[in-house]
Amino acid sequence: MTWLHRRVWRALRDREAGASSIELVLYAPLLMLITFMLVQFALTWYGDSVAGAAAREAARVARVGGGTPAALASAETRGASYATAVGGKGLTDVRVEVVRLAGDQVRATVSGRSMELVGGLAPRVSASVEGPIEQFRPDL
Questions:
Q1: pLDDT score at 1
Q2: What domains, with CATH codes, occur in the chain?
Q3: H helix and E strand count, the chain
Q4: pTM for this one?
């Protein structure tokens, strides 16, 4: 094999040298974006779970309290404190609304912002729970 053949063979063999570096530069941002989106989705899901748990607790307090205005106010306070106690920073800017509906029903709605990796990208999540007001009915 002559030196010309060796040189041509080496040029053909080394033609793809550095291709993996270019591929890494092209695909790394895409992989990081997908990872970022998955983590943000998980944090939003967690915030939604915290909102649901706080709404159930607020509805429970309002239902057991008989649906009175004092019970509704107590339920709103309990829902906000429960969201902080259970979720920590998983749900911020918490708003709790507990209302009495027609027909001895109560509805608790908890909304807030889920945790976010970059400010302003997390959606607002909310959860509502509705149930009958607990009433004592003596045996006949």
A1: 62
A2: 22-132 (3.10.450)
A3: 3, 3
A4: 0.77
